[in-house]
Structures are given as structure tokens and as C-alpha cells.
Amino acid sequence: GSDHEDDTETPFAPTEKHRELAMSDYGSDHEDDTETPFAPTEKHRELAMSDYGSDHEDDTEHTLANPAVVDKYKVAAEIVNKALAAVFAACVPGAKVCDLCGLGDKTVETEAAKFYNKKDKDGNKIEKGVAFPTCVSVNNQVCHNSPTDDVQTVLEEGQAVKIDLGAHVDGYIAVVATTKVLNADMNAPVVGQQADVMQAAVIAGEAAIRKLRPGNTTTAVAAAIAKVAEDFGVNVVEGVLTHTMKRFVIDGNKVVLHKTSPELKADEETIGLNEVYALDIVLSSGDGKPKIHDEKETSVYKRAIEKNYKLKMQASRAVFSQITTKFPTMPFTMRAMAEVRGARLGITECITHELLHEYPVLYEKPGDAVAHFKATVLVMQNGNDRVTTWTAQPIKSDLELNDEDLKALILEPLKAKKKKKPKA
């Protein structure tokens, strides 16, 4: 909508605690990392590391309280939605997975080039482009499958394909994910187990987005997702988090942990006004405990901004220099490196010394049905703005939501209708 200009209320400012989450992308020892980083990362490092601090919460310049920021999120969302539509249409039997991933990233770059081409008030070019590389994960692959061009895997009829990608404008990030089943007749509905997990994921998303309101807790959001999964007889996938996003920070400290376990716990926190969330729903007909099959499949990484180390190998230093220049804060794919084979060698030493976070390709068991849907949600004064969303095929599931409270909740509008001003 265009009514965000009235949303200037001071954002809710809960204290952000450091979290010892097994799946967290942030270490707890960053306060000792005082070595000067590579020059290109200084601005990004300062912005991204601010997510640890407690004094940035009053900075409304970079929040949804600023209409210019809302506009940038919405442009990033427009870019992402177009890239998703391009990849969705191209996901057909015979298409190479690596080509689909390349198409998503190229579409993001092409669309981003159309916007914000004037320099900012300080005379700097506005950065924009890929915020999360396109991943195309097939069947029981849960996420993060973004292969290099030498991997010749092609899609086949009947497969369930999860598409996941993100873009940013000036560091303001929009992400999206959806699931497509390659039916022989694309007008025919998805049926069976795959329909159950997809229908459950769509409904869980509708419930969760309505729970992401100021004053509600992260626990209440997770409980809504869990209840929908229970009614459909499917499992929430472990390790999946709904994160806040901030400028140059794709995975902020405030999280909804969808499924707790002895290894994974998160503090309960309160949803705040003017926050931005990557609402990430992943459900499975299996046990929801995905595993890594082959570490060599990993091709998505992110610079660990809180870590520094003087690399020994020349190949490693060259790769790390390229990463800090081209991808100082956002996740990237091996496909984007100048020379992939040489980069693999350098990446290994970077990982050994914890300079990079890995996004491994995760799998449920063969035969398990998996659905992945993700939306970018702006928590605004007059309701939530879902600026990116999934594209759902026709789905025919014999199961349905039984919980009466959630049934009523998902019928509620996301935004309150504007009251018409009486005529004078």
C-alpha cells in the first residue's frame, strides 16, 4: 500500500540479547575481534555488527518509520517477485538446476539495475542486487541447493521443487520461497502427501503472519505453525528460523524458532512495530530432522563479519579478498566467484578458520514430501505488509485445519481498512 507515510511512531525497542543458538550465524566472541578488516567491509561491518548493540534501536532513519526505507524494501520485493516468477515459469522437466539458479540471480541483477541509479546524499552509489543466491532444491532436498555449472542435474516430471532467493536495495532485503510440483498437467491440482505438506505450509504461513504483530511473542508465532502442522499430520522442520532483517543483516538476532529441541533453543521475545521479518515455513511428511548428505554439495556461504584471521595460502587470500569486496555481508554462491575451481581451494581454508558461514544442502529421507514457503513481512502501524509472497499451485488435500481459533485468525484481514473521511 501507499499508506506507510503515516507510520512514524517510534519503533518498539526491546533489548536484543546475544543468543547461543546452535543454528545462529553469529558467534559470541566478536567483541574481541579488533583486527582491522579489509577496507571494503568497514561500512557494512559497522552496519551489520550494529545488530549486536543496544543503542541502534532508537535509530529510526533505517527503520520502517522512515518512508524512504519502506520504499526500498518494496522495490527489493518487486525485484524478488519478478525473479521468482521467472524461475517458477522455467521450472519444467528437462531444465538444468544450475541454469535455473543462474536465471534467478541474473534476473535479480537485471531488475535491480533499473532502480536507484543516482548517488546518495553522500555521493556514493547505492548498492543493490542479490541478497540470497537462488536455490532450487528438489524432492527431499530441503534447502540451499545452488549448484555450480558443472553439476548437470535436470528436473523431471512429478518432482517437487523449492525455489528460494533474495534481493536488496541499499542493504534493505526482501526474500521469498515457494514450492512447485511438476505435474504433467499444470492445471491439475497437487494431490497426496505433497498436497498435505503444501496446504499445511500455506495455512501455517497465513496464521503466522497474523501473529507477527506488536505485543505478540515469538513463542506464539511458533505455536501457531506447530498447531497447523499437527492438524495436517506433518512435521515442522528442525533448525528453521523466522528472522528479523535489518539493513545489510539478513538474519537478525530476534528469531522465531519454529521447533525447539535439546540442541536448539531461543529466548522468547516480543514482536515490535516497524520490524521486518523473513517468515520462513518449511514442513515435511518425514521426521523433520534433515541431514547433510555430502559436504561437497555446499555452495552457499556468508562472510562471518565478526571473525578475522590472516590466511596463509595465496589462493585463500585471493578468494577472501574477492568475497570481502563483492559479498561483504550477504550470502553468495560459488557460481558468482571469478574462477570456481580455484575458489574451492581457497574457500576451504576460510572455513577452517571460521571466516565463512556455510549453508549446507540438507535432506529429509528419500520419499519424504517437503514444502517451503517464505515471505517478507513489514510490521506496520496499520497492519502487516506482505511485500513478497509465494505462488501456490492448485492443491487438493483431504486434510484441513481443525483449530477453531486459527480458522478465525486466518480469515482476518492483514490490514485494517482505512476509514473514509466524512465529507465537509
What would you note in describing this structure?
It is a single chain. The chain contains eight helices and 15 strands. Strands 5, 6, 7, 8, 14 and 15 form a six-stranded antiparallel beta sheet that branches. It has a three-stranded antiparallel beta sheet with strand order 1-3-4, with helices on one face. It is globular. Strand 3 (160-169) and strand 4 (172-181) form a beta hairpin. With 424 residues, the protein is of the alpha+beta class. The longest helix is centred in the N-terminal third of the chain and has 24 residues, at 67-90.
Largest β sheet strand count, sense and barrel closure: 6 strands, antiparallel
**N/C terminus separation:** 26 Å
Query: What characteristic shape results from the CA principal axes?
Result: globular
**Uncertain residue segments:** 1-41, 52-58
Radius of gyration: 21 Å
Question: How many distinct beta strands?
Answer: 15
Helix fraction bin: 25-40%
Structural class: alpha+beta
Give helix and strand order, one letter per element, not per position. HHHEEEEHHEEEEEEHEHEEEEH
Distinct helical segment count:
8
Give the rounded overall mean pLDDT: 87
Binned strand content: 15-25%
Fold topology:
Layout: H1 42-49, H2 67-90, H3 97-112, E1 128-138, E2 141-143, E3 160-169, E4 172-181, H4 192-211, H5 218-231, E5 235-236, E6 241-244, E7 255-257, E8 276-284, E9 291-292, E10 300-303, H6 314-326, E11 332-333, H7 340-352, E12 356-359, E13 362-363, E14 370-380, E15 383-388, H8 404-410
Antiparallel strand pairs: 1-3, 2-13, 3-4, 5-8, 6-7, 6-8, 8-14, 9-13, 10-11, 10-12, 14-15
Helix pairs in contact: 2-3, 4-5, 4-8, 6-7
